[in-house]
UniProtKB/TrEMBL annotation:
One of its GO terms (biological process) is recombinational repair. Residues 356-658 form the UvrD-like helicase C-terminal domain. It holds the Pfam family PDDEXK_1. It comes from freshwater metagenome. It is an enzyme of class 5 (isomerase). Belongs to the helicase family. UvrD subfamily. Residues 24-355 form the UvrD-like helicase ATP-binding domain. InterPro entries: DExx_box_DNA_helicase_dom_sf (IPR013986), DNA_helicase_UvrD-like_C (IPR014017), DNA_helicase_UvrD/REP (IPR000212), P-loop_NTPase (IPR027417), PDDEXK-like_dom_sf (IPR011604), PDDEXK_AddAB-type (IPR038726), Restrct_endonuc-II-like (IPR011335), UvrD-like_ATP-bd (IPR014016). GO terms for molecular function: 3'-5' DNA helicase activity; ATP binding; DNA binding; exonuclease activity. This is DNA 3'-5' helicase. GO terms for cellular component: cytosol; DNA helicase complex.
Length: 1044
């Protein structure tokens, strides 16, 4: 039932005035006030229509009118970032509501906040609570993507030959097979299927095809080639399904679960354990589901099992369903009433983000999605129609620009020039790409304009030059067949080895491999192995090199030998050593185009640290295999922080959903790039996909209709129809993607493309998307050349490469000449002055040695690296600290120190992986933390170490956690000890936070004024926020005064 007028004390409009000083939109008022309190409702909300605000005000309205207590409200969304923002907004709004007459009389002042979390965290909570009843360990470890890849690879290697001999006949390399196993494993979990059901479905299809004659009335004595092709395409699927099932079994044996397992096991718990479902229902009377279009079939089953025919307030947009590749189903909105019971529908059409010109484009490009696909079986009555966006009353017209160049290089230049004035004005900017392959080019052109760039996600990082160099070096260290990577490094700025010398090295490898003999196996030396041999001075073939080139090759050989001898280091340390030995850090710092030179290298280090803690020798091979896999995989990666002013973020469209920028460029709008060319239109008939009939959303997918086929030609017609439907299905996915991309802009939008890219034999066609949107607004230039101009004009490159760059060389040479000239003017010591008595010289040396020893008893060299936690002790008692370093005495570890370390470890697991492994010695601290405001927040960084170097010292800052809400950041330091007793002690402790703020600002390029700091004394549930934090200049002055 909806709330009656007599039950409603306060309107949504009144409540909204508590948190904002403008009026709430009428469409939001209708949804908030008219949505039933005891049955489901669905809100179709267009891009930028204010879904977060809608959910926040719905909570306030429920609480103020007494329809629900705050702790009875459950809110679910997809990302930790979204959950954190929604949780904070609701909590702060409730605090404001508490100060008004709208606060219910019977509701405590110290209320319990609503539960706001991600869908996966919710599933994990149910699974952990019921794990023992499900036959799992309660402390099962959450499997990361990298760890899942390693385990699946191990399963393929160990068990692949046991599945079937025909598995080796598949045209798949090992990493491709692993990817298929992981994808099919997730599909089996998401749809509640197993290998047996896959085999049964495939065999039934193959059997039906096998019984079809060529003509009616004929015996089945032969098959057309196309029938053989269909049957052959089906064969791998059951084999890979068996491997996927073995992978799932291996996870259970090792007490491992991934995200899809969490949902599957939570669903099993609420379906088979009565208490599991009733406990959840008793806790929550009002449920809000955000981004509902992105839920999977299994998540829908879990939620509907728990909350069918109850007050479920779901918000979604069919036009933004873009995560089908990771299990999301675009048909969930259509099936909402079927899954949850008869539902009341509402819509939000007003865009509070986009200018009018951008909205016109969004509506135009999404118009085909208003109609159902030709293959859909969803009834017209139940189909959810996407909204057509309308502008807010005071919306600006905005700017929509178009560029279409002859070459992709000219296009990238044009995009960079378009963004330059915006970055200079401090606008937020983004380049949204459908594919990552051209990212490096656009990043390079942006940097040439002096623009700071942030590349989001591993896939984009792997395209950047410094990361390519580092990964190349890692491959040369690990794999003897990494000749291409070795050539890249040898011919680069570090060694500048010539092309002829590379060829000579190749010839040496060939000669040392011995002569080719027919029928005799010859193990050929690789280029990497040949490089090792240049250290053998007795090798006569080395005479073919010049002295200089041989010296450079030998230097490279020694470097890689030394790196191999360092592989016992932890992987993260080993990767850092590789970068330093390659002088990548020096090269980056010397690059005048880089405003934050080490940012991308630091991001890569963080990815390495997340892969594993074992040694390089144990993990490097696995890490490189995972990088090869991850580079090809579609990934869900969002920026960890909001962009700084004047910074351009470069990311994929998939990563951009839910985000917005002032200026947005969408480049490479050409056919087969955006819209992307499908890898295959055969669907589950090839590619080892889960057969569509076994999927929970089968009614919204193309169907392979061969049931009525009586001859082979009819089966071929069914295949052709199925392929055409798949092509339409994939185009609709691309339409949703371009809709999401276009609607990210707050002020200006640029759509661009180009005819030619390097190595293309034929020109590219403008994308149907840019053609549609540019109609009447932009005239495409003619194609100027029938041949690729990037290949027609020879590229001129000065060789060998200049290590410091041609632009910098003049300044460096001038500085060197100045030093040499100054040195020549220094007075010279004459030869006669050096002739002194040997005895006198020895006596002087002995006396000086004695003085040094006496002096050393009272002086100490302080360490270069100073922990930030010790900074205050140096400031307050430098002699005491010097004494400790002069005469170090081991101290017994306090019990509190041990529990503090255990608590920090627990918090990291709890915040990052949402895993609760609290031991008895920190149980009380963990329970206090779970009631704190930090419990529901998503950290931007956890346990991050920053080395802040100033002068001769490096201050080591180990930040416990950093949270981001909007454009502000909060650094929090967990303290398990007692709070300071007085203001003096408090001021001394604040020096540590001041260093943290200084270091984090330097690392992320965030203005100091946007960073807050606090201590949280967990045992006392006390937050200590300093009124004033010393500035970087004040900190440096404090330190320098110590040594005056």
């Amino acid at each position: 039932m909806s709330a009656s007028n007599s039950q409603v004390k306060y309107s949504a409009a009144e409540i909204f005035k508590v948190i904002k000083d403008f009026d709430l939109a009428p469409e939001k008022i209708r949804a908030i006030e008219n949505a039933p309190l005891d049955s489901p409702s669905l809100v179709v909300a267009g891009a930028g229509s204010g879904k977060t605000e809608l959910l926040s005000v719905r909570v306030l309205w429920l609480v103020a009118n007494g329809f629900a207590r705050p702790e009875q409200i459950l809110g679910l969304t997809f990302t930790k970032k979204a959950a954190t923002e929604l949780s904070k907004r609701i909590f702060e709004a409730l605090l404001k509501l508490r100060q008004t007459n709208f606060w219910p009389e019977d509701l405590e002042y110290e209320f319990v906040a609503p539960t706001i979390m991600t869908y996966n965290a919710f599933s994990n909570q149910i699974f952990r609570t019921n794990s023992l009843a499900l036959g799992y360990e309660s402390e099962s470890t959450l499997l990361s993507e990298a760890a899942a890849f390693q385990l699946a690879r191990e399963v393929c290697v160990r068990f692949g030959s046991n599945i079937s001999g025909s598995l080796s006949d598949l045209e798949l390399n090992l990493d491709s097979l692993v990817q298929k196993v992981l994808e099919l494993s997730q599909a089996l979990s998401d749809n509640g299927q197993d290998a047996a059901s896959v085999r049964e479905s495939i065999e039934a299809t193959a059997s039906h095809l096998g019984l079809l004659p060529k003509k009616l009335g004929q015996l089945v004595d032969s098959r057309f080639g196309y029938i053989e092709d269909i049957v052959e395409g089906l064969k791998p699927t059951p084999l890979i399904a068996e491997l996927a099932e073995l992978f799932q079994q291996e996870k259970k044996k090792r007490s491992l679960v991934d995200y899809s397992d969490q949902v599957a096991l939570a669903y099993r718990a609420v379906s088979t354990i009565d208490q599991a479902a009733s406990d959840v229902r008793e806790n929550f009377s009002q449920v809000m589901l955000d981004e509902y279009q992105d839920t999977s079939v299994l998540q829908t089953k879990l939620l509907s099992t728990l909350f069918t025919k109850t007050s479920v307030f779901a918000v979604g947009d069919p036009n933004q369903s873009i995560y089908g590749w990771r299990g999301a189903s675009s048909s969930n909105l259509d099936q909402f009433a079927h899954d949850f019971g008869s539902a009341k529908h509402f819509s939000l059409q007003t865009s509070w983000r986009n200018p009018t010109k951008v909205l016109d484009m969004a509506n135009r490009i999404s118009a085909p999605l208003l109609k159902p696909a030709s293959y859909e079986k969803v009834s017209t009555a139940s189909r959810v129609i996407p909204v057509q966006l309308v502008a807010k009353d005071d919306a600006i017209p905005g700017t929509t620009d178009f560029v279409f160049e002859q070459t992709i290089e000219a296009e990238a230049d044009a995009v960079a020039r378009w963004l330059k004035p915006a970055t200079s004005a401090g606008k937020s900017c983004a380049v949204l790409m459908r594919k990552r392959s051209a990212m490096a080019l656009f990043v390079e052109k942006l940097q040439q304009q002096g623009i700071e760039v942030e590349v989001v996600g591993l896939g984009g990082l792997l395209e950047l030059p410094e990361i390519v160099d580092l990964v190349s070096a890692l491959k040369v260290v690990q794999r003897a067949d990494s000749g291409t990577e070795l050539i890249r490094l040898l011919t680069g700025a570090r060694w500048r080895v010539g092309v002829k010398d590379i060829d000579r090295l190749f010839v040496i490898a060939r000669k040392l491999s011995g002569p080719r003999q027919e029928g005799v196996f010859r193990e050929e030396l690789t280029l990497v192995e040949a490089l090792d041999l240049v250290l053998n001075e007795k090798l006569e073939l080395l005479g073919e090199f010049s002295k200089e080139s041989l010296s450079r090759l030998q230097d490279a050989a020694i470097l890689f030998q030394n790196l191999r001898s360092s592989m016992a280091l932890p992987l993260s340390d080993f990767v850092r050593v590789c970068a330093e030995e390659l002088w990548l850090d020096i090269e980056l710092w010397a690059n005048p185009k880089r405003k934050n030179p080490m940012a991308r290298l630091q991001s890569f280090y963080e990815i390495v640290a997340g892969f594993g803690t074992g040694s390089g020798s144990a993990l490097l091979g696995q890490f490189l295999n995972w990088l090869d896999y991850a580079a090809k995989k579609e990934r869900f990666e969002i920026p960890r922080t909001n962009p700084g002013a004047g910074v351009v973020q470069v990311l994929t469209v998939h990563a951009a959903k839910g985000l917005e920028w002032d200026f947005v460029a969408i480049p490479n709008l050409v056919e087969d790039d955006f819209p992307s060319k499908p890898r295959s239109v055969s669907g589950w008939l090839t590619g080892a996909e889960l057969p569509f009939p076994l999927r929970g959303d089968a009614s919204s997918l193309p169907a392979f209709n061969i049931e009525n086929a009586t001859i082979q030609s009819q089966a071929k017609a069914a295949v052709d129809e199925f392929k055409a439907d798949n092509k339409e299905h994939q185009l609709r996915e691309e339409l949703r993607l371009i809709y999401v991309a276009v609607t990210r802009s707050r002020e200006a939008l640029l759509l661009s493309g180009s005819y030619w890219k390097p190595a293309n034999s034929g020109s590219r066609k403008p994308s149907r998307f840019i053609v549609e949107l540019a109609s009447g607004l932009f005239e495409f230039p003619d194609l100027e050349s029938a041949e690729n101009p990037l290949d027609l004009e020879p590229r001129v490159q000065t060789w060998p490469l200049e290590p410091i760059g041609t632009g910098q060389r003049g300044a460096v040479v001038a500085a060197a000449e100045s030093v040499q000239a100054a040195s020549a003017k220094l007075s010279r010591v004459s030869e006669t002055d050096l002739k002194a008595s040997d005895l006198h010289q020895e006596i002087d040396l002995l006396l000086r040695e004695q003085d040094d020893r006496i002096k050393s008893l009272s002086e100490v060299d302080l360490p270069v690296r100073i922990p930030a936690s010790k900074f205050k002790e140096f400031i307050n008692d430098l002699p005491g600290q010097a004494g400790r370093y002069l005469r170090p005495v081991p101290t017994q570890p306090y019990r509190a120190t041990k529990s503090g370390t255990a608590f920090h470890s627990w918090v990291e697991d709890f915040l990052v992986a949402e895993v609760d492994h609290s031991t008895t010695d920190i149980l009380d601290l963990a329970e206090i933390f779970k009631t704190s405001r930090f419990k529901g927040l998503e950290p931007a960084d956890v346990e991050v170490e920053i080395n802040l170097t100033r002068g001769l010292n490096t201050f080591v800052c180990k930040l416990d956690a950093v949270f981001q809400v909007g454009d502000r950041f909060e650094i929090v330091d967990w303290k398990t000890g007692a709070a300071p007793k007085d203001k003096d002690e408090e001021q001394q402790m604040i020096l540590q936070l001041a260093l943290y703020r200084f270091a984090y600002s330097e690392l992320r390029g965030i203005p100091l004024e946007q960073i807050d700091v606090c201590f949280y004394f967990v045992g006392e549930d006390l937050e200590l926020r300093p009124e004033q934090v010393p500035s970087p200049n004040e900190l440096i002055q404090m330190w320098e005064k110590l040594f005056v």
